[in-house]
Design a protein that fits this description.
Blueprint lengths: L11 E15 L6 E5 L5 H12 L1 H4 L3 E2 L4 E4 L10 E8 L3 E9 L8 H7 L8 H21 L6 E12 L2 E14 L2 E14 L2 E2 H8 L16 H10 L3 E6 L2 E11 L6 E5 L5 E5 H9 L10 E5 L5 E5 L3 E3 L11 H11 L3 H9 L17 H6 L2 E14 L3 E3 L24 H15 L12 E6 L4 H15 L2 E6 H6 L2 H18 L6 E3 L1 H8 L2 E9 L10 E8 L7 E8 L9 H16 L5 E7 L6 H23 L7 E8 L6 E3 L16 E3 L9 E6 L11 E8 L6 H11 L14 H11 L23 H5 L4 H6 L16
Length: about 800
């Protein structure tokens, strides 16, 4: 292996912080047997019944993986030795027979995990992964059986907030077992989730529609606006149906108008068929008189293509159901506020009260029967991490780096709104040419179109961006009239300055240039920074594509970027056309600069730990192949560029807290920006580090997690990589402060988010609320046609490639 190059480094000083992680001081020594729970529905409920009601002596301390496997630290006493059939009644589902059988094969032990932690095994083998997953089940089993959960986090009623609109927020705890060098840690964090509000179906429905009145207001016709809203909200939700002497729990598959009047044929005792209605049926069968026969009801699936209609007034939304869709825009800010805590408060909630360090009752690992049975022990004190505080980079400003000022007298055009935006912008461009005294026949668009929007004008903004970025090829800058009106004095100056730096970037200007010793060393050679990401459709949507984006720098300072994007299969994390996208990027760099890059630093957003080896390795080879293709076609004799490929993770729960309040930010209490850590929390199989690059204002700051998968530039010396990454966090063109991730990663995220502007409107990529969701259950069942989506996805206008329209 080649020695690491000598790279100059900036100043850094040692600093210790707390992390929201706890040492596993005793790894289980027992071997666990595996058992399969037969292929039946409602396994969660079946396992719960077996453990707590039907056969607790046999199954009480079993661990369930949430799918089909039970783990037991001792052989189960099953009727047939290694298997057994159990018939039980699942509330709301009826009588079920399930077979539990021993899985042939080796038992699960923790021997390989211990070798992995100490470096005796260099790869995370299947045995290591199974052992880590088993540790997850051990710590999560007790609270997950007691509280609503999503597997990784559980939610209690100890902290809740009414969102209205049929939803409420619950606070809970996230738990995850993470391997580190020489140790296993339990990462614990505060979490929040939106839940469906339990209660009478009628009351919830009225709240969803924001209707004040009685149930009669729910007499909607099929496919009306209100009908569609309620259909989407209640789809697949569990409701309890209260009847005399029994309550059943069922899943909603649809709505029915005027449910009480719904006609059907009922078989009599003599086998004849009699026509009746839902209202008559409930009166004759249960002596229930419907108060509101003309309002909507719910439809339940019975199988065999037959459905059942239930009056809404007899239904109650069951408690403990998580809302897995994207929150409506008006609720997102409430969710953010609900989740924010100052660092000292967050640590106190996780660890316990100051002084006595009493753990929250729900986190008492010492009393969990599953942890006790495993012989597992977990420290009650958070770990202390030794890291360093990096010196902030130098930022250079200068008039020579700015774009030209707009000298021509501006022209004005009042638009008509949605449906005419494209025409309005064309007319505005024509007026600008007349105002500037352009000769007849000259049709080059103006440098920029400033669009003043009314309040809540998401649809108009979408049309503006599509017209500017895709159709016409003119830079656009949107501002809202309510923002202009509400600011004055210093606030107005700040708002205008923020708009100005965006405009300058879109006019190919440079706002600032960052500098640090490692960054300057890297950029002395011809180089390119890349950022890449994949944006996926909303949760549960399978018939809409994912969008992959790549952004790349093309100037000698690494502050000007261009972007490209592609459509690919839904939820495909690997960038399918990464090779051609990198090829286009290097080719464009060569046309702009007249030479080839010598160094490529590639920042990849969004990969999970399980995708490092697979997706990461394949994408690195795609980049290599793109380089080989360029070099072969241009017939370059220069050596190919050195490549560093690293992942930037944001979706994690690691947080840092000052051990000394004086080391924290004076306003927010957060650890100071520039703190970087790898020792004590580092991954055993990859070079990685956590970097807190921004100064938090509200709540607890989240560091970014960097995983260096390939490194030909620095030969895995992570110190200069840390410094370059921190410097790039000061290069984001639309901010005057450092941001949480490097600028190219930020840009790639934004390019994916702007995919809605590129799709043909007929494809309905975005619904009316701006959320990527399927429009109906029928739509969700349709097969995915990638060619249709590709043909309806327009690339960015060629005149916009040098302009940072995404900033």
């Amino acid at each position: 292996m080649a020695s690491a190059p000598t790279v100059p480094l900036g100043q850094r000083r040692p600093m210790a912080v707390y992390a929201n992680a706890f040492d596993v001081t005793q790894i289980p020594v027992k071997a666990y047997e595996q058992y399969d729970v037969g292929a039946v529905r409602w396994r969660h409920r079946i396992v719960e019944r077996l453990q707590n009601h039907e056969a607790p002596r046999v199954f009480r301390l079993c661990l369930f993986d949430g799918k089909s496997i039970l783990y037991s630290a001792a052989p189960l006493d099953l009727p047939d030795g290694t298997s057994g059939n159990y018939t039980l009644v699942v509330p709301g589902k009826g009588r079920v027979t399930v077979k539990v059988a021993r899985v042939a094969g080796e038992t699960v032990t923790f021997d390989d995990l211990k070798k992995f932690l100490t470096g005796k095994i260099s790869d995370q083998t299947p045995k290591v992964s199974v052992a880590l997953n088993l540790l997850q089940f051990i710590i999560r089993q007790a609270p997950n059986l007691k509280y609503p959960n999503n597997g990784r986090a559980y939610f209690t009623s100890g902290g809740s907030k009414d969102l209205r609109g049929g939803l409420q927020l619950f606070r809970g705890f996230f738990q995850s077992v993470r391997p580190a060098i020489g140790r296993v840690l339990v990462n614990v964090d505060i979490s929040a989730a939106a839940m469906y509000k339990p209660g009478p179906f009628v009351d919830v429905a009225l709240e969803v529609l924001n209707i004040r009145g009685n149930a009669r207001a729910l007499s909607f016709k099929k496919h009306s606006k209100e009908w569609n809203i309620l259909s989407q909200f209640f789809r697949n939700l569990l409701v309890e149906i209260k009847l005399p002497k029994k309550t059943v729990t069922k899943k909603i598959v649809g709505l029915v108008e005027a449910a009480g009047r719904f006609p059907f044929t009922q078989e009599s005792e003599d086998g004849s068929s009699l026509p009746t209605t839902v209202e008559e049926y409930y009166h004759k069968t249960y002596n229930i008189r419907l108060a509101f026969p003309d309002i909507i009801g719910i439809e339940l699936s019975r199988g065999s293509g037959k459905n059942t209609v239930i009056p809404a007034e007899l239904c109650t939304v069951a408690a403990g159901q998580r809302y897995n869709r994207k929150l409506p825009q008006n609720m997102t800010s409430m969710m953010v506020d609900f989740s924010k805590f100052r660092p000292e408060k967050r640590l106190e909630m996780i660890v316990g009260q100051k002084g006595d360090r009493v753990r929250p009752p729900t986190l008492e690992y010492a009393t969990s029967p599953y942890i006790q049975d495993a012989g597992m022990e977990i420290s009650e004190k958070p770990i202390t991490i030794q890291g360093q505080l990096l010196k902030a980079p130098t930022i250079f400003y200068g008039k020579k780096q700015s774009a030209a000022s707009v000298k021509a007298k501006p022209s004005y055009k009042r638009g008509n709104g949605v449906g005419s935006v494209d025409r309005d912008i064309k007319e505005a461009c024509a007026l600008a040419l007349v105002s500037a005294g352009a000769p007849r026949g000259y049709n080059k668009p103006p440098e920029i179109v400033l669009v003043i929007l009314p309040q809540s004008a998401a649809d108009i903004r979408q049309d503006v961006k599509r017209a500017g970025d895709v159709t016409l090829g003119v830079s656009t800058q949107c501002v809202r009239e309510d923002n202009i009106a509400k600011f004055s004095g210093r606030q107005l100056d700040q708002y205008c300055n923020n708009i100005a730096i965006k405009i300058n970037a879109r006019l190919t200007g440079v706002n600032s240039i960052p500098s640090s010793p490692a960054y300057d060393w890297l950029t002395k050679e011809d180089f390119m920074f890349f950022g890449a990401d994949v944006g996926h459709p909303g949760a549960g949507v399978q018939n809409k594509p994912s969008v992959a984006s790549v952004v790349f720098s093309y100037d000698r300072h690494g502050v000007k970027y261009s972007a490209t994007s592609r459509v690919q299969q839904p939820r495909q994390e690997r960038i399918g056309e990464l090779g051609p996208m990198v090829y286009d990027a290097i080719t464009r760099y060569g046309k702009v600069n007249g030479k080839a890059p010598r160094r490529l630093m590639f920042f990849r957003d969004g990969l999970s730990e399980g995708e490092y080896a697979g997706v990461g390795e394949l994408e690195f080879q795609d980049i290599k192949e793109a380089v080989r293709r360029v070099w072969a076609e241009v017939k370059l004799n220069d050596p190919p560029p050195l490549i560093t490929y690293l992942i930037v993770g944001k979706r994690h729960h690691v947080r840092f807290f000052p051990t000394n309040p004086q080391d924290g930010d004076r306003k927010s209490g957060n650890v100071q920006a520039g703190f970087v850590a790898s020792e004590g929390i580092a991954n055993p199989i990859a070079k990685d580090f956590y970097l807190l690059s921004h100064g938090g204002i509200l709540g607890t700051s989240r560091p970014a997690h960097y995983i260096v998968l390939k490194d030909e530039i620095f030969n895995f010396d992570i110190r200069p990589i840390q410094e370059v990454a921190y410097t790039l966090c000061h290069a984001y063109v639309s901010a005057t402060r450092s941001v949480s991730i490097p600028a190219p990663v930020y840009y790639a995220d934004k390019v994916c988010a702007r995919a809605e502007y590129h799709f043909d409107a007929s494809l309905r990529y975005i619904d009316s609320d701006g959320a990527t969701v399927a429009s109906s259950s029928t739509c969700e069942k349709q097969s995915f046609n990638l060619s249709q989506w590709r043909s309806g996805y327009a690339q960015t206008h060629s005149s916009m490639l040098a302009r940072m329209f995404f900033a």
